[in-house]
Hints:
Blueprint: E1 7-9, E2 17-33, E3 36-45, E4 50-51, E5 56-59, E6 61-66, E7 75-82, E8 85-91, E9 95-101, E10 107-114, E11 119-122, E12 128-129, E13 134-135, E14 146-152, E15 157-161
Antiparallel strand pairs: 1-2, 2-3, 2-4, 5-15, 6-14, 7-10, 7-15, 8-9, 8-14, 9-13, 10-11, 11-12
Amino acid sequence: MEDDQYHRLEDSYHLGFYREAAYLEAFNFTHTALRGGTATITFSCKPDLYFDAMPVTGTGSVKLINPTRLRAKPVIRLDAVTGVVSLIFQSSTDGSMTYTFGEADQSYQDVVIDCENMRIYEDKTIPNNLFSMCNFPLEFPSLPTGVCTLTVSGSPKITVEPRWRSR
């Protein structure tokens, strides 16, 4: 397997949570009987343990409540936006933060903003990288503890995978 990307890994020890893991090496089989044996798979896991939370959807604005004491780095999806797009995050912890991307007279479909991996692109067969048109202040958005409201200019359909972390 040549895939060195991280993928969702769930186990029966942490129900309701998942990790992100990359596959490292092939199965190692040990035969213990004529038709039996054991197999070992080796993964490299990121240190965070994520809540298995449902995505939050809305049109123009969504309200998110971070139940943890750690900042979350969400994945935000916008269905269709035009021109310079503003994302406004409001919380009692951070006040109001504005992030913008895009160019005047341009339309964008299926925009993905991956805050943890610091990527912004159009989700197409051949992804269109929008990072060069991104005017974010030093870092990508994160969600503080408590209530946070995300408002997007142009009132597109918004889907937020919050990615709450427990450690």
